UniProtKB/TrEMBL annotation:
<protein>
    <recommendedName>
        <fullName>2'-5'-oligoadenylate synthetase 1 domain-containing protein</fullName>
    </recommendedName>
</protein>
<dbReference type="Pfam" id="PF10421">
    <property type="entry name" value="OAS1_C"/>
</dbReference>
<dbReference type="InterPro" id="IPR018952">
    <property type="entry name" value="2-5-oligoAdlate_synth_1_dom2/C"/>
</dbReference>
<feature type="domain" description="2'-5'-oligoadenylate synthetase 1">
    <location>
        <begin position="18"/>
        <end position="124"/>
    </location>
</feature>
Length: 132
């Protein structure tokens, strides 16, 4: 019999609210936090799912470019950077794909210094200050 260290991760979506997993993550070491990502995939998908088709095209292109260049940046980070650029520019369906992709690439160049948060799935009090 296998005993799970974090059995509640398997039951994440049936729990009332998402606070428990975030509180557990906050108490965990950075190495242990990596094991939570599988439980959060559904939230990641839902966060992007209802975005503009044009924004999704930008994300697909950037992910393709990442794959072709073997860039070491997480795919979900690319999604978040693209969404940030999209929102910063006022959700511009009228802008060209070239301009949007250029803006995403420009922002990606500052990836290590970028700090963005959306509070759709968690309480902002659970965020740790970013150390620069």
């Amino acid at each position: 019999m296998v005993k799970l260290k974090y059995p509640f991760l398997l039951d994440f979506y049936s729990m009332p609210g998402k606070q428990r997993i975030y509180e557990e993550m906050k108490r965990s070491s950075s190495g242990e936090r990596e094991f939570y990502s599988g439980s959060l995939v559904r939230l990641q998908i839902e966060f992007v799912k209802h975005r503009s088709p044009k924004l999704k095209d930008v994300i697909r292109f950037c992910k393709y470019w990442k794959k072709e260049t073997q860039l070491n940046i997480p795919s979900y980070a690319i999604e978040l950077i693209a969404i940030k650029v999209w929102e910063d520019q006022g959700s511009p369906d009228s802008k060209s794909l070239k301009d949007l992709i250029t803006a995403v690439f420009t922002t990606m160049m500052q990836f290590r210094h970028l700090a963005v948060a959306w509070y759709a799935n968690y309480n902002s009090s659970l965020c740790e200050p970013i150390k620069t």
